[in-house]
Amino acid sequence: MIEPMVAPSANERGFAISRLISHWHDIVGDTAAWCRPADIHFPRGSSNNGTLKLQITSGRGPQAQAISAQIIDQVNAAFGYQAVGRITLVQNLPPSTPKTPPKKPATISDAPDIWTLDEKLKHIKSPELRAALRRLGGPVGEDEGAKN
User: Fold this and answer.
1) Straight-line distance from the first to the last Cα atom of the chain, in angstroms, rounded to the nearest whole number
2) Distance from C-alpha of 37 to C-alpha of 89, rounded to nearest angstrom
3) What is the CA radius of gyration of the chain?
4) pTM, entire model
5) What is the pLDDT along the chain (148 residues), one digit of tens a residue?
């Protein structure tokens, strides 16, 4: 489904095999986080033994060189023939930003649960004030009554 959308852009950039872009993560796995195809050139009149140009993040050059034979094997296995025979590397890919886990909602009070908060508020005579203080002391951004 993605390949028809990627093919026009890939052909403009000189890619002979647009599937390489659309399936890159499937082909190389976790390596795709710091490496992506930039270009592919074949010898004149051939579609075999091409040179795949890879963009990699800075500092990954030695690692990319060490696994270049593995990447060539993975690409060729994905296409079913000797499409790539050589890899060139360019260290111009910006580093990916690490995904941080979502932060836990902040609590206004240090009460670990609602029962402790209720214990602290039991001396408040006004039910409206006690309910308001209970809402303020609970987790911010969560439904009322939800536990941490």
Assistant:
1) 42
2) 10
3) 28
4) 0.55
5) 666 666 666 655 555 567 788 888 999 999 989 999 988 888 888 878 889 999 999 889 999 999 999 999 999 998 888 989 999 999 987 776 666 666 665 555 554 566 777 888 888 888 898 888 888 876 655 454 444 4
